[in-house]
Design goal:
The chain has 467 residues and is α/β, with parallel strands linked by helices. Helix content is 36%, strand content 15%.
């Protein structure tokens, strides 16, 4: 290679490195424990922390008033309701405080911080604001907190700057992938024209496999995805390992990790809804037919139905071959049992024998009728007329992430986004039933609707007991 070519290659490599987003250094174990205390008022594996409020010293759990609740996840401290929390950034804490008309004090040292946290005194011995709690915590917990305060200025969340938020979008390959991508792009263009979210532009990066490589390359703040059915275990493992908030439209099982959320009821929840439906139809001896391997074995165990030698309702969990065999056997019975299949895996039921009229049913988390007129009008304006879940799935997930970021406010961070999502209660999404999340519930909807096969109409119809 000629010298000029070598120089050009070196220049391009350097430019590429300069342009790549810089990831924050990994936290040590001590810093990670301190971050948990700062953000949530609790210490992993440590004794509970108590906060003493006001002059009377009213005791409350520190989880109610963690440091970040007033000082912000970035520790800058913003005015709120006439109270001005201090800036806890390490470079600010460790220099003298001098302001006209205010009480001045020397720099904070680790010892002075311990006194401020536990006794409510600044380095000059002045009492801190009454709104500042005093905390009862162990010396180890205080040391952990101080270790994180020193690291906090460098502990910025990937994909988040003062001017932009980077969101990864996972769209499965297939005939609808291009349309799903166009819908997302049209939505983001409209959002950014309106000013983004608190002045931050939304940057979308479409994810390619493998997911870990995408995260390492693009460093998204959060990820919106469509269906994870058949892939969620690997997906959620990557999500939790990288601590990236993720909103997927639907999956097989309920999310297990702290960072994963699903919009719609998955196969497990659909199976539970079908068990409840069987009871409403008067079934006395329901049973589950399942393929004896993951995830079907795991779902069957969670639905908790005792097997019966003479079942009058069968919930089928497994591939097409198992569904067809079960339907065929039921159709030949003198007294056909109910055959109930989660809609996310169900085969076509358009051509069943008359003996299964209103005896075969599926549970689906979403119907076109769930969409509001305003949401349908918005889809039309964005160029989509299909209402197909394979097209609207990523859009729905992205919309909910955007709504959570709006509610989180300007002081946005990954942990605050998680806290905000866990506070969703009956949130109107427009295209789905109302969404509710919680600390122990990361699936937004319940079992949804039951559709039964009508022999007369040769199609699935809504059942009066299907809600």
């Amino acid at each position: 290679m000629r010298r000029s070519s070598v120089a050009a290659a070196m220049f391009l490599a350097a430019a590429s490195l300069a342009a790549a987003p810089k990831l924050p250094d990994r936290l040590t174990a001590q810093e990670a424990r301190g971050k948990q205390i700062y953000l949530h008022g609790e210490s992993p594996g440590g004794k509970p922390i108590t906060a003493l409020m006001g002059d009377g010293g009213v005791e409350v759990p520190a989880t109610i008033v963690p440091c970040a609740s007033c000082h912000g996840s970035d520790a800058r401290g913003r005015d709120e309701a006439g109270v001005r929390p201090s800036n806890l950034r390490w470079d600010v804490l460790t220099r003298p405080y001098k302001a006209p008309g205010e009480r001045n004090h020397p720099p904070y040292t680790p010892a002075a911080i311990k006194r401020a946290v536990t006794m409510g005194l600044d380095p000059a011995g002045h009492k801190l604001q009454t709104a500042m709690p005093r905390y009862r915590m162990s010396l180890t917990q205080i040391d952990d907190l101080i270790a994180y305060l020193q690291k906090l200025p460098q502990d910025s969340d990937p994909g988040l700057t003062d001017d932009a938020v980077r969101i990864g979008v996972v769209i499965p390959e297939g005939e609808h992938a291009a349309d799903a991508k166009k819908l997302v792009e049209a939505y983001i263009r409209l959002l950014n024209r309106a000013g983004g979210i608190f002045g931050r532009t939304i940057e979308v990066r479409f994810a390619a496999s493998p997911l870990q490589t995408f995260i390492d390359t693009e460093h998204p703040f959060a990820i919106a995805a469509s269906s994870l059915i058949g892939n969620e275990e690997e997906y959620e493992s990557v999500i939790d390992r990288n601590q990236v908030p993720s909103m997927a439209t639907i999956a097989t099982l309920e999310p297990k990790g702290h960072y994963s959320f699903h919009v719609l009821a998955g196969i497990r929840e659909q199976a539970v809804a079908l068990a409840q439906y069987a009871a409403r139809r008067g079934a006395q001896h329901p049973s589950i037919v399942f393929e004896d391997k993951p995830p079907w074995r795991d779902i069957a165990a969670e639905v908790k139905i005792q097997p019966s030698a003479s079942p009058d309702a069968l919930i089928v969990l497994g591939p097409e071959s198992l569904q067809r065999a079960t339907l065929r056997t039921a159709a030949m019975s003198d007294h056909p049992p109910l055959v109930l299949i989660p809609g996310s895996i169900a085969i076509s039921l358009d051509d069943l024998p008359a003996t299964l009229d209103h005896r075969a049913a599926i549970a689906v988390p979403l119907l076109p009728s769930d969409a509001s007129p305003a949401a349908i009008a918005e889809l039309h304006a964005l160029g989509d007329d299909s209402l197909s879940p394979s097209i609207t799935g990523p859009f729905i997930s992205l919309q909910l992430l955007v709504e959570a970021m709006r509610r989180a406010g300007r002081d946005l961070g990954r942990e605050k986004l998680i806290d905000t999502l866990e506070g969703f209660y009956n949130v109107e999404s427009g295209l789905t039933p109302k969404i509710t999340f919680g600390p122990n519930r990361h699936t937004g909807t319940g079992g949804g609707h039951v559709l039964v096969w009508s022999g007369k109409k040769k199609t699935l119809v809504e059942d009066d007991d299907g809600r």
